[in-house]
Every structure is written in C-alpha cells, then in structure tokens.
Amino acid sequence: MSSGNLRVTGGPLWAGPGMFWPSGAVLASDGVVVYAGDAALAPPLPEASELDADGGLIMPGLINAHCHAAMVLFRGLADDLPLDAWLNQHIFPAEARWVDERMTEVCTRLAVAEMLLSGTTTVGDSYFCASGAARAYEQTGMRAVLAQGLIDFPAPGVPDPAQGLAVCREFVERWSGVSPLITPAIFAHSPYTCSPRTLGEAAALREDLGVRLYTHLAETASEVAQSAETHGASPVAWLDELGLLQRLDAAVHCVWLAEGEAELLAQRGVAVIACPGSNSKLGSGWADIPTMLADGCVVGLGTDGAASNNNLDLFGEIGLAARLAKLRTGDPASLPAEQAVDLALAGSAAALGLEEKVGRLEPGFACDLIVMDLSAPRLTPLYDAPSHLTYAASGNEVRHTVVDGQVLVKDRQLTCLDLDQAMASVRELAARVAGG
C-alpha cells in the first residue's frame, strides 16, 4: 500500500472523457488522487516525490478486465486453430501437465512485467492455482481482481473436481484482506464445462463470501449450437432459465448473442467483457459492442490470455474494438475514439467492481496512471488525445506506470521486479514444455 505524496507534472493531462488540460498535474497522497487538472492551479503538496512527464501524456492506467496471466507460458504453443481444437487438443493437456503454483507465480510475474510496461495497471485475472498468481501480484504491486478457476474435470491444483468449490473457498478466504491491491473472486469456466449444479454452487459461494463471479459465455457459434441441442436454449437463455444469470457479475466474450440478449444481460446486471483480439484470432467472431452499449450493458475490454492473443497490450484491443465496430455497422462514427478508450477504463473498472476506485484521475480515485511518450513519430502531431490512444498508440509508448501512487515503471524500466530474471524463469519452463 502506498504511503507518501506524489506529484506528476510536465505534460498534457487526459483524465478521462471530457477532461483534458494542455498542461496538467496529478497530485496524490497515500496512493489517492487529491488533485487532477491544470498544472497552474495545482495546490502545494508538501514533501512530494516528483515524476516528470517530460512532455508525455498523463492519463489513467488501463484496466485489462479479462486475462489468464500465467498462460504467457503457452504463448505461440498452438496457433491458427479454432477454439475447440485449440482448447481440447492443446491447452487443456498442456495445463494438466505443466500448471502448478510455482508455474503460476513465475509466469504471472512475466505477465505483470508485460502489462505494466504497456500501460495496464489493473487486471482481472482468472486461472487455476491462483495463489501462485496472488503472490506475484503481491510482490510486484500491481492491482488485480484475481479469480480461482472452477471446472468439472480434473484441473491443476484440483485433481478431484468434487473439491473445486472447496478450493475456491480456501483461495478467497486466504487472500481476502491480505492486500488492498488484490481482490479475490471466482471464475466458473463456462456453461459447457460446468454443470448446472456446479454453477449454482458457485453462485451460492459468491453470495456467501461476498465476492464476484465470472464465466466465459457465448464465445463461439458451436457453443451456442451445442447449448441449443443439449438444453433447448442459448447459453444466455439457459442460464436465465436456471435463475443463474442474475447471480453472475460479468460474462466474458458474448460474441454470439441472440437478438434481445444484450438487453437481457443489462437487465440482469451482468457486465460484458469483450476480447476482440483473441476472438478474432480464433476465428470466433467479435462482440457487437455498439448494440451492447445501446442496450444498456456495461462493457469492458480484456486481452484474454497470451496463448490466444498472443500479447497483453490493451491498446491493441482498444483500436481493434473501434475498428470492428465500424466494420460491423458500416458506420465510421460507431464506437468513436473516446468511447473506445473508456471501455478499457470505466467499462473495465465497472466489470471488475472497481468503478469507484480506478478508471479516472479524479480526487478520491486511486493514483493509477501512465505517461505516454508523445515524441514518437507515430504520435506526432497531437490534435486529439483519445484519437491517438485508439488509432495510433501502442504499449511501446508507455514511459512511466504508477499503481497506488507507487512508480512501478520509470523511463521504461521496471522498478518492481527483475525483468531479465522473470524472462529467464519462463524460458526455463518453456524449454521443458517444448521438450515434451
């Protein structure tokens, strides 16, 4: 947890939609923003550490609402495949053999490095052996909503599926209150890998422990067809018939929604987390974000895991979401730049239950921010910050990253972990994977 004061000045400030100052300042005390606005009007802040933007754009840190961070180990392991073949023939077998708590800790550290260096300050991470990942987040100081995975067959850390709920409970109880930056949660993999009983028990556990529940939903056309054949309804309609939809906090993907189902999700209070990079790479399609927003859905953005994306640069998801929206609607004004960026800010924050803490640089919000280098050729000249962030920027332009008032990346160098060591540790594991 942060202590002390921090002053960030020396560049323009885009604090969120409609909040831009050509010369801005952000002041924080004990990790909380106390001022964000015109640098000329900033009040004094005694004994503050200074972070110079050096002409760079000061903005809120991005929020990756859905990721399987430790899957960086499987980056590039099985590409150019449809989801069912990718998952069942390659990923599930690899996970069964190689995933344990040491793996999740080691690999999550590399994922943390990748995300912090590319401007993500908060992540919604869902995976097996989640305590290993929690240690990585605790050690590095990145903010995370971290969910223990639940599935109806033997999985890493849960050789007996009957113990899945107990493992989820143990994880939540172990990590609740340990760090203000780590929020434990539950991730029921999907309606096609979790029985109605498992889903119902997960929902009951969510309510008992007061945590959030997530699942993959309506990701592929084959999933929807299978649900129709097995249950006589789409995945969304089936969960609603079971009374489970309203007990779900967010659904990931939602590529194949029937007419009216976006409105139903909104009515039931279920946020949607779209992952356009992963969905398009797997040939699954892409979520109809304009319709979801028009129907009142909360929509956030995620990268998914590096095994299916194959990177964790959320700027790529922002740009892809905006472009795909225009392609779907035929309207170049669909999902304009500022709205697209805000999917990875307020939208993702709300999907993770952190809408009052992150996603804006305003008094009372956490001091989670990044500074983008505007001197790059691809960002010259600057007329409109959200336009640049959507259509021109990448994570390569991130100069500084601050989480909870702590500078975790300064001048493109990590201050919170040894990057060479993190990469070497993953390469060591990868050599074993490659050797079979």
Characterization of the model:
This protein has 436 residues and is an alpha/beta fold. The chain folds into two domains: 5-61 and 365-414, Urease, subunit C, domain 1; 62-351, TIM Barrel. Helix content is 37%, strand content 23%. The protein contains 14 helices and 17 strands. The strands form three sheets. An eight-stranded parallel β-sheet has the order 6-7-8-9-10-11-12-13. Strand 1 (5-16) and strand 2 (19-29) form a beta hairpin. Helix 4 (164-175) runs parallel beside helix 5 (196-209) and helix 12 packs across helix 13 (385-391). The protein is globular and about 65 Å long. The model has no long low-confidence stretch (mean pLDDT 97).
